[in-house]
Every structure is written in C-alpha cells, then in structure tokens.
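Shipment paperwork, digital attachment
Item: protein structure file
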Amino acid sequence: MNEQERTGYEELYRKCWEQQVKKDMAVNPRLREISRFIRRKEQRSKLELTKKATSVNRMLIRGMSTYSIGEALDVSHRSITQIKARYGLPREETKEN
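Attachment content:
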C-alpha cells in the first residue's frame, strides 16, 4: 500500500468516525467532549490559505509526497506536515478573485 492509498483510507476512516460520533452525541449528551476534535478540524478548514499553503495544497492535489514538496520548496517535510495539519490540506481548489 503506497502513501496515497493509505491517506485515502485514513480520510475515509476519519469521515466515518466523525459521523458515528455525531450520532452517538445525539443519543448520549455526555459525549460532547469528544466533539472538540471535530470542531477544531472544522475551524482549520475555514482558515484562509497563505501563499505557501496554496502551493502545498496544489502539490498535494497532484499527488506529491510531503518529502518531495519539502525538497521543491526548500523546507523540511515536517513543516509541510504542519502546514497540512494547520490548514486541513488537501482542500479542493476554489476560484481565486
């Protein structure tokens, strides 16, 4: 299994997990503490992308790894991973004004 397939499975698992947590919270209100993770993720996806984050997003959509993006932008793969986490990347591209 390559990195792209693994990432796809991780995204699918996360979406299913979030849906299940929402169902569980409707049944048991004490589980609202778990929703902090979901809210944080939603807030991250609303952040406006910086110039570097936009570049990273485009490269991720094209299927590049964090290592190859780091080499292309002359930064460490760890900083690329942090950018991915901070902005909720990869995102679908939107029209820029």
